[in-house]
Amino acid sequence: MRTCRASAAGKLTVVLATFVVVLAGCGGGPSPRAWAATVCGALTPWRSEITKLTSSTDEQMTAQTTPAQAKENLVRLFGGAEQASETARRKVEQAGVPETANGEAISAGFSGSLEKMRNAYGRAREAIQGLGTGEATVFYDGVRATVETLNKEYDASALDTSQLNSEELKQAFDEVPECR
Asked: Which residue, of 8, 39, 65, 107, is most buried by count of CB atoms within 10 Å of its CB?
């Protein structure tokens, strides 16, 4: 009986060891190049959309429209920026954690930055929705204040890359076509 148990225990040890090796091989995140390509693939359309929406917002601030028209347009623009930021954040999150030093912090930093931007646009949209349109001067003063707050929040949400040093990722971001 002892031989049987020893043999079974030995087989179990081999199976568990094999399982751990297989899991270790499967559990890693994407390579730095793959991760950078996915992130840039998410951020490139986001940047284009934000640039377009920012330009449209600037036009709205100087256009000869009624406060009601401006309000409708600005709510739509900020809502679009909020949605674009969420789409990019979700794609970055789906990219996983890059297989590099500080990969978890780097991934969380990118995702967190986009989340803060999304929230800033959402707050701006809500602020504009809350403005009355009866008096043009009051409305446009409210719009200016909202845009100033948005700009401050947007700047504060920028990714602090000083703590996210990874030579592998820097090289990957420089080399992959999606990031050019």
From this structure: 39
Q: Look at residues 59, 79, 85 and name the one whose alpha carbon lies nearest to residue 70.
A: 59
pLDDT tens by residue, 65-109: 899 999 999 999 999 999 999 999 999 999 999 999 889 999 999
CB 35 within 8 A of CB 95: yes
What is the C-alpha separation between 178 and 180, in angstroms, rounded?
6
The single-letter code of the amino acid at 104 is: E
- CA 20 remoteness from chain centre: 33
The tokens describing 22, both together, are 């297989």
* CB distance 65 to 143 below 8 Å: no
DSSP string of 59-89, one letter each residue: HHHHS---HHHHHHHHHHHHHHHHHHHHHHH
